[in-house]
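During the reporting period the student researcher (J.K.) took over the structure-prediction task from the postdoctoral fellow and processed the backlog of single-chain submissions. One of the processed entries is reproduced below for the supervisory committee.
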Amino acid sequence: MKTKRHTLELAGDGFHVTACFGADACEHRAIESPALPQRLFDALGELGIGDTLRGRVGTQLKAHHIIKIAISYCPNACARSQIADVGLIGAAPPAFDPTCCTACGACSQACREDAIRLDSAEALVGIDYDKCVNCGACAKVCANHCITNRVMGYRLMLGGKLGRHPRFGEELTGLRQPHDLPRLVARCIKNYLQLAQGHERLGDVVSRVGAAALEQPDHK
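J.K. obtained the following structure tokens:
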């Protein structure tokens, strides 16, 4: 394990887990789960990923053969989760209770997406969820707790990559809870290893069968 200025990296045989420093050192984090990187690393270490990859592509694994798992604790995605084989992005969707709102405007000032709707009298009307990126900033500054984050979790994206044909990961629906992710990510990678043809990377398999297929019970 080595610590960089902005990331935590855990290097396994055939896979790397990278996390931004938001777990305990960033005011922008939308969710706190500092144990997640190690728990993912432990779960993936049981799959024999390196041996499986070497059996497919040869004894010398190159950088693009290594499966990358990237954890970002907020939508800023400093770990570049959108272009990882498996990307996790912390999210804290806001819920609004208008009965206690004093229309102080703090939430509107904190929102970088212009998703807080105010009327001409500066009264809070509501949240534009089409613009909202679920960063949790509005709830952090709401003094009366009219905006809260009742459900927090991670967006799960599969199949991101750079290279000759770059692509963003395909996002699965819903938010995933930290305690479910080690088992779920291990299942997705195990399914990828079983479905891959030739030198296909995870993004290639997602392009061919769809991200949802990797979430299903293990393929035989």
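The committee noted the following: The chain has a mean pLDDT of 90.
J.K. will present the remaining backlog at the next meeting.
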